Amino acid sequence: GDSVTQMEGPVTLSEEAFLTINCTYTATGYPSLFWYVQYPGEGLQLLLKATKADDKGSNKGFEATYRKETTSFHLEKGSVQVSDSAVYFCALSDRSSGSARQLTFGSGTQLTVLP
Amino acid sequence: DSGVTQTPKHLITATGQRVTLRCSPRSGDLSVYWYQQSLDQGLQFLIQYYNGEERAKGNILERFSAQQFPDLHSELNLSSLELGDSALYFCASSSRGYGDTQYFGPGTRLTVL
Question: Which of B35, B42, B56 sits opposite A107 (nearest CB)?
């Protein structure tokens, strides 16, 4: 079945540091890939997505590139802020499953940014 | 604000009881998904409805059931509750069964005592 493996957390960085959160996936078909973010006490918000190989998703300074050859979708940000402190989830939606498009999530990575 | 609403925000109940969680999707979205978030299992897909019909089932227990009504809101029914059912339950919606982007509600936190 489909699966997503995320870098174990927690991750603690100083403000303005470079961020990388690794994500690799296994899928039987050709998935769409997502990063969601969960701030304390809130639901999940879509951060960015990519639907085909070599696509780059970007939003709020975060980027991730769909790498089919390495089955990866690593999240990066050049300069993190305290307000980026949250839990980040990598997820996939396998389009070979017909109209059923449930998301398969990684375990989440807790990011804390210190001032 | 994603446009997806869930009620109640918090629910505290006892073992053996039954509860109903409610979700209203974004305006125009036909597809509703339910997910459970717990410390030990992470985020898991439970069930999907599309325009009133069940479309996919995930790791949903037999004690749990769901439905989607003609006005497209959905309810998740949890019965014979156990301590291990304590979790955050999220609803998400997307525009079509093929819609890749799912928008999540704020969740219902269920505590079973």
Answer: B42
Nearest to B103 among A46, A102, A106 (CB): A46
Say how far apart CA A49 and CA A55 lie, in whole Å. 9
Q: Distance between CA atoms of B11 and A19, rounded to whole angstroms?
A: 37
Residue A72 is classified by DSSP as: B
Does residue A110 sit at the B interface (CB-CB below 8 Å)? no
Q: What is the mean pLDDT of each run of 10 residues along chain A (115 residues)?
A: 89 97 91 93 92 94 96 97 97 72 91 96
Question: Three-class SS of residue B84?
Answer: helix
- Whether pLDDT at B76 is above 90: yes
Q: Which amino acid is at A80?
A: V
Contacts of B107 in chain A (CB under 8 A): 43
